[in-house]
Specification:
The chain is of the alpha/beta class. 36% of the residues lie in helices and 22% in strands. The mean pLDDT is 97. Bound molecules: pantoate.
């Protein structure tokens, strides 16, 4: 693996089918699953590590975001990355961008409503990664279901010749979805945090028993999280492509939850693929033992 800091160096080091895994670093097993998916489908695997200031709002603490490039480089190398792209803010934004990308409607609800400007910042940085690296495929975690929809629509609207590949959420053995933010959870918070996935799994069980009513599914998650001291922000069923609220599970969708546990804001979801006579539920993959985050 080589580590480079400019788009030009990434392109020199890449050949054949290029798979891109965009990250903000502090890698965990969720990122490693994206890298493995990219490895299986690509000749050159590029992983980017860039804490994108444009996607952080005034409430989000950009300076608190965990950073450790040498730890990340070791994990990326072991997982099969060929080129690690770790640009400076100047390489990514030599000047503050005057171009704005607004993904109409898809960013209106859920994370978009609570984090104004967030998806515009994500869209700009991902568009720059697509333009500068020119990947054939780019791999994104399903945990950020709204991000997957926004990035896929942005790539299609702007005719980027890239396939956006969603990869299932990776979970700790007790169900907690992996996130770099989990490292901020105290022992008590960590226990409370499992309520999010527990609620989602209960709702997924209900779907498997035939439940299709959005408010009923949302109420299952709300009740589970409401039993703890986590502060629920929303539990919502949404169309997977348009990210509009759904009252009935009649099309591909995700059931999402967001809650504040202590000082840390967590999100999670389960995804539903709706076929003619059955629904496939993607609850994500549980690790057999604690993740690299919990080990460190
Ligand atoms: O999901 C993330 O880590 C970020 O939003 C991404 C896609 C790397 C863009 O900064």
């Amino acid at each position: 693996m080589i580590t480079v800091a400019t788009f030009a160096d990434v392109r020199v080091a890449s050949s054949g089918r290029v798979g891109l895994v965009p990250t903000m670093g502090y890698l965990h097993d969720g990122h490693l699953a994206l890298i493995r998916a990219a490895r299986a489908a690509s000749d050159t695997v590029v992983a980017s590590i860039f804490v994108n200031p444009l996607q952080f709002g005034p409430q989000d603490d950009l300076s608190r975001y965990p950073r450790d490039l040498s730890r990340d480089a070791e994990l990326a190398d072991r997982a099969g990355v060929d080129v690690l792209f770790a640009p400076s803010v100047d390489e990514m934004y030599p000047e503050p961008p005057r171009t704005e990308l607004q993904i109409a409607d898809l960013a209106d609800h859920f994370e978009g409503a609570r984090r104004p400007g967030h998806f515009e910042g994500v869209a700009i940085v991902v568009a720059k990664l697509f333009a500068g690296i020119r990947p054939d495929r780019a791999f994104f975690g399903r945990k950020d279901a709204q991000q997957v929809a926004v990035v896929g629509r942005m790539a299609a609207d702007l005719s980027f010749p890239v396939e956006v590949v969603p990869v299932s959420t990776v979970r700790e053995p007790d169900g907690l979805a992996l996130s770099s933010r989990n490292m901020f959870l105290s022992t008590d918070n960590r226990r409370t945090a499992t309520a999010l996935s527990r609620g989602l799994f209960r709702a997924a069980d209900a779907v498997e028993r035939g439940e299709r009513d959005g408010p009923t599914l949302e109420a299952i998650v709300t009740a589970e999280v409401g039993d703890t001291d986590a502060a629920l922000e929303y539990a919502a069923l949404a169309d997977a492509a348009t990210v509009q609220p759904l009252t009935e599970l009649t099309t591909d969708a995700f059931l999402a939850v967001a809650a504040r546990v202590g000082e840390t804001r967590l999100i999670d979801n389960v995804a539903f693929s709706v076929g003619a006579d059955s629904i496939v539920v993607d609850r994500g993959e549980r690790l057999p033992g604690p993740s690299v985050l919990e080990e460190s």
